Amino acid sequence: MSTSPSAETSNFAPLGIRRRVLGPLFASACLLATTTGVVVLVILLGALIGVILRGDVSEPKVIERGGLDLLRFLMTNLQSSNPALAGYKAGIAGSLRLLGIVLCTAIPVGVGTAIYLEEYAADGPMKRLIQTNIANLAAVPSIVYGILGLAVFVRAFGYDRLALGPVLLSGGLTLSLLVLPVLVISTQEALRTVPASLRQAALALGASRWQVIRDHVLPSAMPGILTGTILALSRAIGETAPLLLAGAAGSILRLPRGLMSRYTALPVEIYNYAKEAKPAYQLVTVGGILILVALLLSMNALAILIRNRYSRGPRA
User: Fold this and answer.
1) Sequence-distant contacts of 217-220: CB under 8 A, at least 24 apart
2) What are phi and psi of 313, to 5 degrees?
3) What gap in Å lies between CA 187 and CA 272, rounded to an integer?
4) What is the pLDDT of residue 110?
5) Mean pLDDT of the chain
6) Alpha-carbon distance 21 to 207, whole Å?
7) Per residue in 228-250, pLDDT tens?
8) CA 48, 51, 52, 58: dihedral to nearest 10 degrees?
9) C-alpha to C-alpha distance for 311 and 300, rounded to whole angstroms
10) pLDDT band at 113, cuts 50/70/90?
11) Measured between alpha carbons, how far is 124 from 127 in angstroms, rounded to an integer?
12) b/e string for 26-55 if b means 16 or more Cβ within 10 A?
């Protein structure tokens, strides 16, 4: 017994109505969530900037400068028990050096791992096991990586000859472990966006597997890889707990001179100033937060410019 066209149309009518109603509702909910996040962020940053410009502290005579003068002063002075002389110079230098270590270690290892898993490794139980472990490691709390860095790099499981100690290299390697799973996953997603037809066409023309990856896959996936790098470095620069366990000094009065020097980082110094009981340290803490945000935004802006350059491709 055949079904009439009118009956079929009536069956599809509720589905079409749901699509027309639920689609715009879902889009509106996403827009509302995005707008709320942006507004809250603007309000918080506006409040911090207002505190810096007005110099709002309970002891206004302790810190007489404000605005850009205060920020410049904080960036060029070392830690001090006197809030009028306190600054973040050592923390800024330590954070930049830590990012350099992350760039030299985590980025090559993470990108190389993703390339192997996507382009070379055959599907099987071993690959699925590795993928599952990487996905699980991306969700591990940062404090766990701090404990791992303390055991592996700082103490070397009790082998004093292999232990690095609480030095800059230990902190950088700990942060590298922290961001490695995120970098591997984001790079894999970028490689998956490259069409398989591009690989097949290059192989058909006689290119080797490495030539296909080097000349075609990596350039096409570079915007996504740089996006993952931005996310990894953004997470690394703001971490405090792993560095506290990996040997970051609470108070240091000199800049790190090498990989085996004692160090501190900007988030660690902000944390230490925030614990101080003197009300004047509130202004110092707010200034450090703004410096960290400015450093993060500047770094991200530079990475986005590089990513957009790769997205446009070479100029004719």
Assistant:
1) 217/119, 217/191, 218/115, 219/310, 219/313, 220/193, 220/194
2) 80, 175
3) 35
4) 92
5) 82
6) 51
7) 888 888 888 888 889 988 888 87
8) -130
9) 16
10) very high
11) 5
12) eeeeeeeeeeeeeeeeeeeeeebeebbeee
pLDDT score of 175 more than 90: yes
H-helix or E-strand spanning residue 141: none
Question: What is the C-alpha separation between 57 and 28, in angstroms, rounded?
Answer: 41
> Using an 8 Å Cβ cutoff, are 111 and 120 in contact?
no
Token match 């570079």: residue? 222
Is 119:282 a contact under the CB 8 Å cutoff? Answer: no
Mean pLDDT value of segment 249-259: 82
Which CA distances in Å does 108 have to 134, 170, 249, 258?
A: 16, 18, 28, 22
Report the 10 Å Cβ neighbour count for 189: 16
Q: Which residues have CB under 8 Å from 198's CB, separation 6+?
A: 216, 217, 220
Residue whose token pair is 């997205």: 311
Check if the beta carbon of residue 175 is closer than 8 Å to that of residue 101: yes
Place of tokens 């075609």: 216
> Smallest Cα–Cα separation from 288: which of 95, 73, 88, 99?
88
Residue 243 in contact with residue 171, Cβ under 8 Å? yes
The residue behind tokens 């505190």 is 51
In the block, which residue shows the tokens 């230490």? 272
Amino acid at 284: V
Please compute Rg for the chain using Cα positions.
25
Residue 38, sorted as left (phi over 0), alpha (psi -120 to 50) or beta, turns out to be alpha
């984001």: which residue's tokens? 186
φ, ψ at 190 (rounded to 5°) = -65, -40
Residues recorded for the chain? 316
